[in-house]
């Protein structure tokens, strides 16, 4: 029996309670959410022609129009009517395009030898085609200026092809210089030109996230400090955003992608805009002067505390970029990019997974400086446990001493951990910082994929987050995205290939919590005891909330046991005349615990809603084994 007290509303559930963690891991940004289809568009990869195949007379040049991306290519007459000069781009695991949709090709070009006109053919080709023709989208481009100029045209493919090649070749006899060669679908999410892949961004928005954390993760730290995520390089005109190495080129899983770089095309402006358009609070995380904890023995991994000024200034400038008026230095950069109104940043994180004693001493000067300039800004510090489950007991007292507003905890842990931690926050210090469960996912023992059972245990654990919403203010599953051909880490919330995507069962768990988060916790006892998770409660986990905007009572129950269990929900403290109606139950279940949603079967396991009836103020039912259920009633 579960008794839910409705008389006095419990802790307020923060609007930020359920959100998203984004990191460019598993080709989540370039090759994923960022809709650019050309790899190495500015010829700045260390091997400048990586991703390209050239033929005829192509010369690499390095005095281009964009200071931070100086390389470009020069195409010259091949010297024979039956020869071509040009180049092919392989995209990210190919270039995925759909029949009948429009793709915007753009390029910066000039005629180095002066006036006149030169022509180029732009094609999408199927290099594996067995037919007469490889090209299935063709357009001609005329370059007519001695000065660098941006040229654009639309390609409309005659077929759907997940792995095409972009081909560009000279059709006249002179010389043309080309820089920043780009191809985007016209139909991006919300139609932005430097935009996002629609299906992937829509999947994020469909969660209704309360908070959006970016840009990571370990890439905040970088493999070394030179390759840390540097937000200032990620704003301004895309053509002049420099390339950065991706920390996830090499990984702990021995999946190695030597061509994994960050174009910074999806940069901080785009992250803020996405947060705004999804209705989520932006939560940028910045480097605290330490690179990835796995590199701590490397001298390139630490900035001395006395040398942190530049890093601290980056944090202050970021707040100005987000919130400053259009006359401030960084507010003007934002305004020039198209957003004169502030982004209304309220939270900022300093440091990711820094578990050593060198972290708090670096966090301290950041906190002092931010508090001084922006007393209302909420600052997020970080803490363990690490991926072995080791907790770092000295960090919480330090976070409390430093008066961090929130502390970011990460849990990539096996089934047993998720089953045992339902009560993790029941006894946390209520007087210290709040909790941001900033990265978590159930990593099945020997089952590292997004199978149903892992998601069920995440749901069970999340009831503990919800019951403790007075102290847990944010929670974000991680990682978010993975390309099926380019992943380093799993499980992940959304998988995709070049054209399609699939929402995992973990996605649906997150969505069910986010859509049914309510406004206030309601105290719930199970068999007369506070709910403390599986132990002694037959594998049942539960939490209850009230939504005062919709007058809804919502109870979430995860049955993690292999047997069906009677569930009786007794709502106490209602007035006699209060009527509970419009009962609904949304269930997520699978008979096969190892089953997952795949690109081939994306809807194998999805939430199913059915009406249920309630007798007065008591609802009884049997909950099937291994099932997550959300019960909802409207109070009238
Ligand atoms: O989510 C993958 C990685 O896990 C993150 O980059 C890091 O913060 C954690 O170790």
TrEMBL record:
Q: Keyword Glycoprotein: yes or no? A: yes
Which SMART domains does its entry note?
Alpha-L-AF_C (SM00813)
Q: Which UniProt keywords apply?
A: Glycoprotein, Hydrolase, Signal
Report the Gene3D superfamilies cross-referenced here. Answer: Galactose-binding domain-like, Glycosidases, Golgi alpha-mannosidase II
The regions listed as transmembrane in this protein's record are none
The EC class name is: hydrolase
Q: Which reaction does it catalyse?
A: Hydrolysis of terminal non-reducing alpha-L-arabinofuranoside residues in alpha-L-arabinosides
Q: A Pfam family for this UniProt protein?
A: ASD1_dom
Report domain Alpha-L-arabinofuranosidase C-terminal positions. Answer: 438-627
- Its Enzyme Commission number(s) read 3.2.1.55
PANTHER family (UniProt xref): ALPHA-L-ARABINOFURANOSIDASE 1
Q: Which family does it belong to?
A: Belongs to the glycosyl hydrolase 51 family.
Q: What is this protein called?
A: non-reducing end alpha-L-arabinofuranosidase
């Amino acid at each position: 029996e579960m008794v839910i007290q409705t008389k006095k509303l419990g802790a307020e559930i923060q609007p930020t309670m359920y959100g998203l963690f984004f990191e460019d891991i598993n080709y989540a940004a370039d090759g994923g959410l960022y809709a650019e289809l050309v790899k190495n568009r500015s010829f700045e990869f260390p091997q400048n022609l990586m991703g390209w195949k050239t033929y005829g007379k192509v010369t690499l040049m390095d005095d281009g129009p964009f200071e931070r991306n100086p390389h470009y290519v020069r195409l010259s007459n091949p010297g024979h009517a039956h020869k071509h000069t040009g180049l092919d781009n392989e995209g990210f695991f190919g270039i995925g395009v759909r029949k009948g949709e429009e793709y915007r090709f753009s390029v910066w070009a000039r005629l180095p030898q002066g006036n006149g006109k030169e022509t180029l053919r732009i094609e999408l080709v199927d290099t594996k085609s067995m037919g007469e023709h490889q090209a299935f989208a063709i357009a001609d481009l005329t370059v007519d200026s001695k000065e660098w100029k941006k040229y654009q045209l639309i390609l409309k493919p005659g077929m759907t092809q997940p792995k095409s090649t972009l081909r560009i070749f000279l059709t006249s006899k002179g010389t043309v210089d080309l820089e920043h060669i780009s191809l985007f679908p016209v139909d991006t999410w919300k139609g932005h030109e430097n935009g996002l892949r629609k299906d992937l961004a829509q999947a994020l928005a469909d969660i209704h996230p309360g908070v959006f954390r970016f840009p990571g993760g370990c890439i905040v730290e970088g493999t070394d400090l030179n390759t840390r995520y540097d937000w200032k390089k990620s704003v301004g005109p895309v053509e002049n955003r420099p390339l950065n190495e991706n920390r996830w080129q090499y990984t702990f899983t021995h999946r190695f992608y030597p061509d994994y770089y960050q174009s910074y095309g999806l940069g901080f402006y785009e992250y803020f805009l996405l947060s705004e358009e999804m209705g989520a609070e932006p939560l940028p995380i910045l480097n605290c002067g330490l690179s990835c904890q796995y590199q701590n023995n490397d001298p390139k991994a630490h900035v001395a505390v006395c040398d942190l000024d530049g890093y601290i200034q980056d944090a202050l400038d970021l707040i100005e970029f987000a919130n400053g008026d259009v006359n401030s230095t960084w507010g003007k950069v934002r305004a020039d990019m198209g957003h004169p109104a502030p982004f209304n940043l309220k939270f900022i994180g300093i440091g990711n997974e820094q578990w050593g004693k060198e972290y708090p001493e670096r966090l301290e000067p950041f906190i002092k400086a931010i508090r001084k300039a922006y007393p209302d800004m909420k600052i997020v510090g970080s803490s363990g446990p690490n991926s072995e489950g080791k907790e770092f007991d000295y960090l919480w007292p330090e976070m409390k001493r430093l008066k961090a507003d929130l502390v970011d905890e990460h849990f990539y842990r096996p089934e047993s951990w998720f089953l045992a931690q339902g009560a993790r926050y029941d006894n946390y210090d209520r007087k210290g910082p709040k909790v941001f469960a900033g990265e978590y996912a159930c990593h099945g023992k020997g089952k590292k994929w997004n199978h149903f059972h892992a998601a069920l245990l995440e749901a069970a654990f999340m009831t503990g987050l919800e019951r403790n919403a007075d102290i847990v203010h944010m929670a974000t599953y991680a990682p978010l995205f993975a390309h099926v051909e380019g992943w380093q880490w799993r499980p992940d919330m959304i998988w995709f290939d070049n054209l399609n995507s699939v929402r995992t069962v973990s996605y649906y768990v997150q969505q069910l919590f986010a859509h049914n988060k309510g406004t206030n916790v309601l105290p719930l006892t199970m068999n007369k005891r506070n709910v403390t998770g599986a132990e002694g409660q037959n594998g049942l986990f539960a939490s209850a909330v009230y939504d005062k905007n919709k007058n809804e009572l919502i109870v979430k129950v995860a049955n993690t046991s292999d047997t069906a269990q009677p569930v009786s929900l007794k709502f106490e403290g209602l007035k006699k005349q209060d009527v509970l109606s419009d009962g609904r139950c949304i269930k997520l279940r699978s008979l096969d615990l190892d089953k997952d949603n795949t690109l081939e079967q994306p809807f194998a396991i999805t939430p199913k809603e059915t009406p249920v009836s309630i007798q007065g103020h008591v609802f009884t039912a049997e909950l099937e084994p291994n099932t997550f259920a959300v019960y909802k009633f409207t109070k009238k």
